[in-house]
Write a structure and sequence with these properties.
Chain lengths: 455, 283
């Protein structure tokens, strides 16, 4: 099977387009179902965050064709002509796709390099795909390697320490407007994790007044309790919250901008020119573009934060190099697993064959051993298992080594089949199958029934 | 006769230029690359302050030399008045810099200080007002308070300009490049407010002393009102009074108030540039 990736991120496509192509959480099952109609897509994971929309897929057709099918799906699903976005997509196949995902999970491809949120988002993408049976053994394993790499980068390097997150950026930008955070008031619109992190950072820098507004009041109350602030109803945010706030962090799930020029203008009049700093970390955006035209209003969305962080990236080269080394290690491990996976059917077939021989001979000799006690009979069966394991050990080891290192001039799995006279379940060389559940999976396209991933 | 004063003021001018360069370079060119390290280059800032303090001390010496040599108030000549104006501005700038860490204000206000001093040095041959009128305490106090008030308004103007620049950069989301060390809007707003809050009472006192002197001279008030110089002074007073009223009574903030401060400068310049029939001291 081939692994491919089709996607766009904060570097390749503008925010407006990313918004249109993003997958809302509730729409993911429908997206997986739509993908299941593509016969060539065997496995699939969708990673849709504020800064990227990526579709990872594994299939048996050539990678180029697989990519085209994914692009066609994206176009159909979002009802956007391919011509509008195809040129801004990146298409990565096999090792390139693997390398990309590992970099993403390690937040090396993030807008804020070193930020930890992406790891959770990758985990969530995998879980969602697994829950609907879209992620099979190959992509599950790939994503698990990516998660391992991400964890290692955060524990083994300094990339996430003292670095910049949305919170850091918020503090840094807010300090261009306000000089004393102790009197500043934050209004959080939408009780999301990202806004909580940003707010926490501002609180650490002296902010004492926090107000949380959310459509679900209980969530606002919970967050306000965690932050030591006050919860208000969402409507109150427009009546009083925005009039009193100095910094607004907005990350609602609203499909359209909730802060527009027309509804902010009367609020700004009531504020009498008091500066208002709007941090829009929602996707789609919560703050309309023209709001920045209002006097004393400063709007920063995700793309603006990216621009701000560009120079920050240059100062962390050493840690980035260390993180890249971890990415390479995990990439090699995954590819090794993948190569040994190619000989897994042959190993399974050998084990089955030997097991079958053992059973045949046991059936023949068991009546002659009837005079023995059950314990002795069990000892003999254990001995037979041990002998067969020993017989299989060297061929299996050599098969794995040959697959990993490409050292053999022969097609060893085929040789194994011929030497041992194994005839059943011989797989195609370009479509490795794992016996049992994996074989079944490879023969079918995506289903929306849950499937346990290979661990 | 006043050569020593001129020489010392020329040395002070060199120090001001050095300070301006150090402030400007430390603000723009040597801004830290990493956003987290916002302190930037502090050694240049140190030398900027050393140069500024040196210039202030030199100007003090120059003014002292003038008084000793001429036995006149420095306000008896255009040269002396402009030199004192530059000196007052420099002292206020130093106070603001040390109190609010406004290195950007140094970069913005020092060119104005240099302009005043150069202007004064170009007028060293201007006639001396050897008139008893200028020697009276009330007139001396009138001039001193007006000069101090105007110096504060010039600082308010510099703060407002920096505010507008910072506002523009923030709006354009160009905050990562040069000018990283521009002060926060709130600091600039507060510095501008403090300048006006101290400057307006001084201007008020100066104007009141002027009016008192008119009454003392028993001349027609109409003669004084016809003077564009005086008219500009009163318009300036109303402008800055409006600023304070809008800010304190109506709670106004933000960019529009900064425009008021920027608009105040033309009237300040009129005070100096326009010929005045009443502020004329015959030989």
């Amino acid at each position: 099977m081939h692994i491919v990736l089709v996607g766009m991120n904060h570097q390749s496509a503008p925010l407006a387009l990313r918004e249109r192509l993003s997958y809302q959480k509730h729409a993911l099952p429908a997206a997986f179902k739509a993908l299941s109609t593509a016969s060539s897509v065997h496995e699939c994971v969708i990673l849709s965050t504020c800064n990227r929309v990526e579709v990872y897929a594994a299939g048996s057709v050539p990678p180029t064709q697989l990519c085209e099918e994914l692009i066609a799906h994206i176009s159909r699903f979002h009802n956007i002509p391919t011509t509008e976005f195809a040129s801004l997509l990146y298409r990565k196949t096999e090792e390139e796709a693997v390398h990309h995902l590992l970099r993403v999970a390690c937040s090396l491809d993030s807008m804020v390099i070193g930020e930890a949120q992406i790891l959770g988002q990758v985990r969530e993408a995998l879980r969602t795909a697994q829950s609907v049976g879209a992620a099979g053994p190959l992509l599950s394993r790939l994503f698990e390697h990516a998660l391992t790499a991400g964890k290692r980068v955060h524990t083994e390097t300094e990339i996430g320490r003292g670095g910049f997150s949305i919170g850091h950026v918020a503090v840094d930008l807010a300090s261009r407007i306000f000089d004393d955070f102790t009197h500043a008031q934050i209004l959080i619109l939408g009780a999301g994790k990202m806004s909580e992190l940003a707010a926490r950072h501002l609180i650490q820098n002296g902010v004492r007044f926090v107000v949380v507004a959310n459509r679900t009041y209980e969530r606002a109350r919970d967050m306000a309790e965690r932050l030591g602030g006050q919860a208000i109803h969402f409507e109150e945010a427009f009546e009083t919250g925005l009039v009193q706030a100095d910094i607004v962090i907005s990350s609602t799930a609203a499909p359209h901008p909730i802060l527009r020029k027309d509804n902010l203008l009367p609020i700004m009049r009531r504020r009498r020119g008091k500066p208002l700093f709007l941090i829009d970390i929602a996707l789609p955006r919560d703050v309309a573009e023209d709001v920045n035209d209002l006097d004393n209003v400063f709007v920063y969305n995700l793309d603006d934060l990216q621009a701000y962080l560009n120079e920050h990236i240059q100062n962390r080269e050493a840690e980035i190099h260390r993180a890249e080394a971890i990415v390479d290690e995990e990439r090699v491990r995954f590819l090794a697993w993948r190569k040994t996976r190619e000989v897994t059917p042959a190993i399974g077939a050998l084990r089955s064959h030997l097991e079958q021989i053992k059973e045949e001979y046991w059936q023949i000799f068991a009546p002659r051993l009837a005079h023995l006690t059950e314990k002795d009979r069990q000892t003999i069966r254990t001995m037979m298992d041990a002998i067969l394991d020993r017989v299989a050990k060297d061929p299996i080891q050599r098969l794995k080594t040959a697959a990993l290192e490409n050292t053999s001039d022969y097609d060893l799995p085929r040789a194994l089949y011929e030497l041992f006279g194994i005839t059943a379940a011989e797989p195609a060389s370009d479509q490795p199958t794992v016996p049992g559940v994996n074989a079944a999976h490879n023969e079918t396209t995506l289903s929306v029934t849950p499937a346990e991933p290979e661990r | 006769m006043i050569e020593p004063s001129i020489l010392i003021n020329e040395l002070a001018l060199i120090c001001y230029v050095v300070a301006a360069i150090c402030y400007g370079v430390s603000l723009v060119l040597l801004a830290p690359k990493a956003p987290s390290n916002a302190s930037g280059n502090t050694s240049l800032l140190f030398w900027a302050r050393v140069a500024l303090v040196s210039a202030i001390l030199l100007q003090l010496a120059a003014t002292g030399a003038w008084c000793v040599l001429t036995h006149l108030s420095p306000f008896a000549s255009k040269y002396g008045t402009l030199a004192v104006m530059a000196w007052t501005l420099a002292i206020l700038l130093l106070l603001f810099d040390l109190r609010l860490n406004l290195r950007a204000l140094g970069a913005a206000a020092l060119p104005i200080i240099i302009l005043f001093l150069v202007w004064g040095l170009l007028n060293t041959n201007s006639p001396l007002a050897k008139n008893k009128m200028i020697e009276t305490q009330i007139v001396s106090l009138h001039v001193m308070t007006i000069v101090a008030g105007i110096a504060l308004f010039v600082l308010a103007f510099a703060c407002a300009c920096l505010y507008l620049l910072q506002n523009r950069l923030l709006k354009a989301r160009r905050v990562a490049g040069p000018f990283r060390l521009l002060p926060p809007l709130a600091t600039l707003d507060r510095a501008a407010y403090l300048s006006v809050a101290y400057g307006l009472p001084l201007l008020t006192l100066g104007l009141a002393l002027g009016v008192a002197y008119i009454i003392h001279l028993s001349t027609s008030p109409l003669l004084w009102l016809e003077d564009p110089h005086n008219l500009a002074a009163f318009i300036t007073w109303f402008l800055y009074a409006f600023y304070l009223l809008a800010r304190l009574a109506f709670g106004w903030r933000g960019i529009r108030l900064q425009y008021v401060l920027v608009a105040g400068l033309p009237f300040l310049l009129i005070l100096y540039l326009l010929p005045s029939p009443t502020h004329h001291f015959p030989q």
